[in-house]
Hints:
The protein is α+β, with helices and mostly antiparallel strands. It folds into two domains: 1-30; 31-177, Nuclear Transport Factor 2, Chain: A, CATH 3.10.450.50. Helices cover 29% and strands 35% of the residues. It contains four helices and eight strands. It has helices at 3-22, 34-52, 56-61, 85-95; strands at 69-73, 79-82, 102-114, 118-130, 136-150, 153-163, 168-170, 176-177. Strands 1, 2, 3, 4, 5, 6, 7 and 8 form an eight-stranded mixed β-sheet that branches. The model is unreliable at 1-9 and 184-191 (pLDDT under 50).
Amino acid sequence: MTEVQNFGRQLGDFLxxxxxxxxxxxxGVFRPDPQAEIEVRxxxxxxxxxxxxxxxxxxxxxxxxxxxxxxxxxxxxxxxxITEKAAMREYLDTLFPADGETQNKSVSVSQVLASSTxxxxxxxxxxxxxxxxxxxxxxxxxxxxxxxxxxxxxxxLHWHMxxxxxxxxxNANGVRIPLDGAPATGTPxxx
Length: 191
């Protein structure tokens, strides 16, 4: 058995235990903890608030000392992988909207599973940036993360975000326009 095959088997065994226990069946390795789930869900809510408020300090403070990776697809379509807190702070300076613009994330699906020591999260949502020109830029996304309980409380160990659909922009009437904001005709965005 190769190292990759062995890792795949171990991961499959782990996930089988996670989902068997979460569904109330089987004697898996994962023991759900309802209070831990509430705490990890709050960590996720705090993270969303920090992004909306452009609070880089709160975001970086939410990372575990053992933080491994933050992965996402950039606006330009290439992979971004961050493995250090200092690099995360530097990246956040480029991520946040310009002055006078706001960023909100709506979450359509949020799942949290947690034991007393580890939490797993999954989200589907849409980051919406209200631009100063009155338009709104949307980035549908999917995210998953791993949190761990530390001496200081719950912290993020690993984070992954990817585009769930292409970015798009709409004017104040909900009509799609080019991403550069130039006036154009388009079709209304469905609710």
